[in-house]
Amino acid sequence: MSKKEKPRYNLFQNSAYMLSAAWHNAPSVIWLCVITAVLAVATNLLGLFVVPTVLAAVEAAVPLRELITLILIFTGAMMLVAAANSYIRANTLFGKVDVRSAIIRRINDKLSQTSFPNIGNKDFRKKQTSAANATNANSKPTEAIWSTFADLLKNSAGLVIYLVLLASLTPWVIALVLATTVAGFFVNRYTGGWRYRNKDEEEEITDRLWYIVRRAKDKSLAKDIRLFGMGPWLSDVFTATFRLYRAFNGRASGVNLLGDIADAMLALARNGVAYIYLVGLVINGGLTAPEFLLFFTAIGGFTTWVSGVLGGVNTLHVQSLELSILRELLDYPEPFKFEDGKPLSPDTDNPYELRLNNVSFRYPEADENNLSNISLTIRPGEKLAIVGLNGAGKTTLIKLACGLLDPTSGEVLLNGQDIRQYNRRDYYKHFTAVFQEHSLLPCSIAENIAQELEPDTQKVKTAAEKAGLAEKIESLPKGYQTPLTKEVHEDGTELSGGETQRLLLARALYKNAPIIILDEPTAALDPIAESEIYGKYHQLTAGRTSIYISHRLASTRFCDRVILIEDGAITETGTHQELIAAKGRYAELYDIQSHYYKDEWEAHHG
Which CATH number fits domain 11-330: 3.40.309.10, 3.40.630.30, 1.20.1560.10, 3.40.50.800? Predict the structure, then answer.
C-alpha cells in the first residue's frame, strides 16, 4: 500500500471482522473481555472510595469494631476482585491464541491456494509480509486487539462513572481536562502513525534482512558459501542492512520522544490547574477533607479515563491499519476461476489434445514479451520435447500450458475449449509436473509420494517399486513412514540426488494424471544420468501425453517430436533425426554439446 493510498477497511469494519473471527473460533474471548473491563473498573472504584470512606468514618468517630469491619469489607472486596481479575487474564490467553491461529490458517490457505501469478506480484508479496508481521507474536494486532477492546470498555465505563461523580464541580474544570487530553491524543496519533506512514521503507529493509537470513541458512547453498568464501561477505551485507534497520528505528524513537514530551507538558497543565481549584475550595470551606481527597483522586482518575479512551482509539486505529492490509491479502483478487469455474474431471482413458493458439506472454513490468505468437498443438499420447538454451522461454511456455499462467494474448485450449472457463484446480488435476525446483516436505516418504495426509499404501508401494525406490525405502527402519529431512525430525533421512529423482518419479506415477510434464528436474545431474532418468519416465509413462523440457538436446531423442525455442519463439520442429539432417540451429547446438557428452561418457565408462 502506498503512503497516499487509504486502507480499504475502516476501524469499525476491522473491529467487526475480529469479533466475527472470535465468535466463530473462540466466543469466550468476547465475554472475557467484557468481564475483564468490569473487574478493572471495580478495582479502580474500590481504590477510589476506600480512603475517603475510612477517613469519613474516623471523623465521625465510629466505634473501632465498625471501623475494622469497614476496612475488612474493602480489603476482602479488593482481594476478591484482584483474584478474579488474575484468573480471567490467565484464561483469556488461550482463546486469543485460538483466534490468531484461525487467522493464520486463513492466510496460509490463501497463500497455498491463490492463483500462481499472485505469487510473483510485488503488491501481493508486500501484503503477505505485512500479514505475517500482524500475526507472528502475542503482541501483534490479531491478538493484542482484545486487550485494546477490554481497555476501551474499561475506560469508557470509568469515564461515564467519573463524569457523574464530578458533575457537582464547575464545568470548566472538566472542559479543561477534556481539551488538554484531546490535544494530547492528536499529538500521540500523529507520532504513533509515523511508522505506518513509513511502512514501505520498513518492509523493504525487513525483506532484505529476512532474505539474507534465509539464504545464509539454506542448506543447498552451504557448499557454495564455503567454497567461494562468501561467509564474510554475507555477514557484511547483513550488518549494513541491519544498520539501516537500526537507523529507521532510531528515527521512529525520536518522533515518539517528541510526542511524549508534548504529552507530559499537557498533563502538567491540566492537572496543575485542576488541583489548584480544589485547594481553593478547601480553603474557602467548600469541601471537607474526605471530599477533597475523593475529588483530588477522581480528577486524576478522570484524566486517566479520558486519556485511556482516546489512547485506546488511537491504538485501535493503528491496529486497524495493519488488519486492513491483512484483510486485503485475504481478499486479494484472483485472476483465475476456482469454485466459480466449470468443473472438470480428469480421465486417463480419454485422449486430451492441448493447443496453444497464437499465444504471447509478458511478465508484469517487463519491457518485452517473453513469448511471442506461439502456436503449438500437442496431440494425445505424444511425447514432445521442448529444448533450447537457458532463458529461451521453455519454462514460461510450460507454465502457460498447465495453467499456472494465463497468456497476455491468445488462448490455451484443452480439447478445443479455452481453459480459462474451468475451475483451475480441476484443470491442474490433468497434469503431473516435476519442475527443477521441486518440494520435499518434512513428513513421511509415503506422504511425500502421495502428497496426501492419508495415502493409499498399496498405491504408494506400487509407485515406489516402478520408480526403483522400493528397495531403498524398505531398508530404512521405519520403511515408508520414515520422515524426510533432519530439519524437523531427528530420525529423518536425507535422499541423494538420484533417490530424490526416483521419489519424484514415484510421485508422478501415484498421481497418474493424463499429461506429464518434466521441466528440467534433472538439471543438476550430468547428461548421462539425466538421459537415464528421462528414459525411465518414457518407459513408465507409455501411451500418455508427455512433455520433456531440457537445454540438453541429447536427453530427449526418444520423443516423437522436438521443438527448439529461441528468443521466445519456436524456430525449428521435427524429430531428432530430422532436425539433425536439416543442419540448422538445432544441429549446430547438438554438435557443440556432443563434445561434452563424449567427455561425460568417457568419465563414466573409462
Answer: 1.20.1560.10
